[in-house]
Amino acid sequence: MTLPDTRPTPDVRTGDAGIPTSLPARVGVLGGGRMGAGIAHAFLLAGARVHVVERDDQAAAAARDRVATALERSAARGRDLPDADTLSVGSDPAGFAGAGLIVEAVPEDRALKIDALTRIEAAVDAGAVVASNTSSISIDALAASLRRPERFLGLHFFNPVPASALVEVVTGAATTPEVVRAATDWVEAIGKSAVVVRDAPGFASSRLGVALGLEAIRMLEEGVASAHDIDTAMELGYRHPMGPLRTTDVVGLDVRLGIAEELERAFGARFAPPALLRKLVAEGHLGRKTGRGFYEWSA
Ligand SMILES: NC(=O)c1ccc[n+]([C@@H]2O[C@H](COP(=O)([O-])OP(=O)(O)OC[C@H]3O[C@@H](n4cnc5c(N)ncnc54)[C@H](O)[C@@H]3O)[C@@H](O)[C@H]2O)c1
Fold first, then answer.
1. Tell me: domain 205-290, CATH 3.90.1170.50, correct?
2. Which InterPro entries match (predicted)?
């Protein structure tokens, strides 16, 4: 069934509050790690100039390499590449001046993100939209320290960004409808689909995805079935493209543990992390990125 698109269609390329609904010419990304590099790559391919800010020059150079590698993979698949000078990197948020959108993608730590967002806001133009790629932290909690919470929202990209079609647009209590509409249009302009979700712990995807993942880990602990058979039950029985344990390996066991702890604080024991998850994380078995999680991974 196709639902009618009830969003108001802007008849000019500028939204009601002076926010362009076409893709901003300049986009900033704070934190050029796994997600930030993927986000930068997506906006570069869509034609924006992208500036990535990292914590120091060495990390900035590493971020540039990550984005370049992602662009090379796209070229190998036949995509036209943007000019090399459309990507810039640095270590000072002042470089975000002139950007219409800045996406924060530093590690999932509330204090770190509040500090990062405050520094972004101090550096950018008053009209810029600022977004966080947080997987689990409340948008309203992050907005509380900002001077312009009406121009702040969550843009929750998925991992790996180039292969993921979805972005959750997470609306805070103060986010204006114009900002939500512009952000939704920008997501579509980079070739992805947006779902709009009210700020609630775990949004839509993490809450459901982690619930399934934690139950799968408990089933493994209880010896109900092997990891392979638990995953196969979902892949073949429910047509999930990837089972919950393999998905946990790909996301990172440490990332999932952090989200589970956040959801346990919000919803109680039903999101309590299983002992097996804590044990594997404590042993450094974080999934694909360390070569071992619920499965063995070769490089
Ligand atoms: N990995 C996933 O599957 C996934 C999926 C969706 C959302 N997220 C979210 O995306 C965010 C980033 O996750 P990631 O997996 O890319 O982490 P990551 O560790 O790969 O990257 C984080 C980057 O931020 C940089 N950084 C740290 N402090 C900084 C600072 N003060 N200023 C600038 N840069 C700084 C680090 O050097 C690093 O390159 C987190 O909020 C995470 O929850 C992750």
1. no
2. 3-OHacyl-CoA_DH, 3-OHacyl-CoA_DH_NAD-bd, 3HC_DH_C, 6-PGluconate_DH-like_C_sf, 6PGD_dom2, NAD(P)-bd_dom_sf
